[in-house]
Amino acid sequence: MTEPSGGSEQRPRRPVVVPAIALVALTALGVTALLGGLDEAPDAPEPLGQGAVLDQGMYSTKFVESRVKVEKGELSFDADKRFVELVFDVTNKTDETARVGMPPEQPERAFALTSFAGSLLKISPAFPKESGPFTFALIKGDESQQLQPDVPTQVVVRYRLKEGERPPDKITIDVGSFEEGTDFLSAEPRWQMVSEEVGDKFVPEIKARVTLPVRQEAGA
């Protein structure tokens, strides 16, 4: 067999050096591709903590605290009641009375809600159904379910603890927001939760993720 022109001797190949920055760029592009492209990577919700104020469209909300509250038994033989409470200062920014409402059992059920507590899309860790939630606004010391326009109001969302149950160290809340839209039937303007259509469902968007330490008083 005749050897190819130039002989059979092979010169050793020189290794190709790829700059580290190029490897980082390629890795980043790969991760972005997995997330669906440069323009489709989901935005992480805004992280907030105790004392933060959030513009929710319909409401301006301050996340005051999370605490353990003890209610003493009325009689000597009545057991004390312990609650984990989430405390908010809420201002209804609309021209009409709004409701305190209830947190949704599942986030995807919240897109049609306009109550304040309806925007508390997910509360972690989750409490059992028998623990609550119980919600109310405090107006001059009385409990109410109403939020009057432009009146800062303290709102409490509470869960009852079982006897001997240890409260969590912190609570994280996924919070939605609202925008003005048009009623489908009447064409009148109305508020609606900011949501994204996913398949045959409307899933509320998470505006912020708020983490609150749970404050425990002595004896709680």
UniProtKB/TrEMBL annotation:
Keyword terms: Membrane, Transmembrane, Transmembrane helix
Transmembrane segments: 16-38
Protein name: DUF4352 domain-containing protein
Organism: Nonomuraea wenchangensis
